[in-house]
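Q: what does this look like with cobalt (II) ion bound?
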Amino acid sequence: MGIEKGDDAAVYRLWDDVALIQTVDFFPPIVDDPYQFGGIAAANALSDVYAMGGRPILALNIVGFPSELSKDILVAILKGGYDKAAEAGVLIVGGHTIEDPEPKYGLSVTGLIKPGDEITNAGAMSGDALVLTKPIGTGIITTALKQGKAEPEVVNDAIEVMLGLNAGASKAMVDTGVNAATDVTGFGLMGHLQSMMAGSGTSAKIYWSQVPLISGLIDLAALGIVPEGSKRNLSSLSDFVGWDQSIPDSAQMILCDAQTSGGLLISVKKDRLDYLMDQLKSNAVAEPKVIGEVNSNSPGTIQVVQ
Ligand code: CO
Ligand code: CO
Ligand code: CO
């Protein structure tokens, strides 16, 4: 399984009962604290394995760092990544560092799965419920942080969200048996949902009022604080998303906001929904929400209503 349907990771069968999952992610700092940045980058990289329903086992560091910055900062970034990987039961076994004017950090992650057990982004079925396991808004909030316009409580909430592993959400969906999943990252909730619908040959209806948001987000979006990537997401989706008149521009931007280390977006048969929600709660997923449903209107499209 490779890149043809834009899935979260590659899957390669080694033997009849074991397949490798392979993925990589790295990016420049989005928060001020280097230890937190390392943890967020690691949680984000591990997330693609969890989105496939797999178990991450090993990782390698990928690092860019300027020679003039204090090595203490680099040590803190690596410690943040190492501790987050340890929380996931993953061993970081090496890596590679290059000199780079802008720091960058991330992981290449290797996971395992039983062939056939992969949860792809292309198996959604008409009639499914759509569940999101983390609130959105990290792109807008980290942009506000850079501009000095975000309240510390709002930033702390966003950091908590980004540091959260998708391990519990992944275990819950594997135990439930679901039709499709992906993690919400750079293309935003709408972008990743659109890929899932296009890959599955289905369409979706989303209820704006049901989408979980990090508190304080609405005010920042109303001020027009939006990362460039989120604007690009919104404009590139214009042919695929129908916005009800009641959905304001700022809400459209929020739904397309580029996320870092976002939650899992899960498509589950309606008669398994209650079981999934129970499993999510018993796996310590704080705020899972049913945000919409899958239908067969026009494949690859999304309708957003109140
Ligand atoms: Co992904
Ligand atoms: Co990724
Ligand atoms: Co080397």
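Residues 8, 48, 51, 182-183, 185 surround cobalt (II) ion (ligand 1) (CB under 6 Å). Residues 198 and 300 are 4 Å apart (CA to CA).
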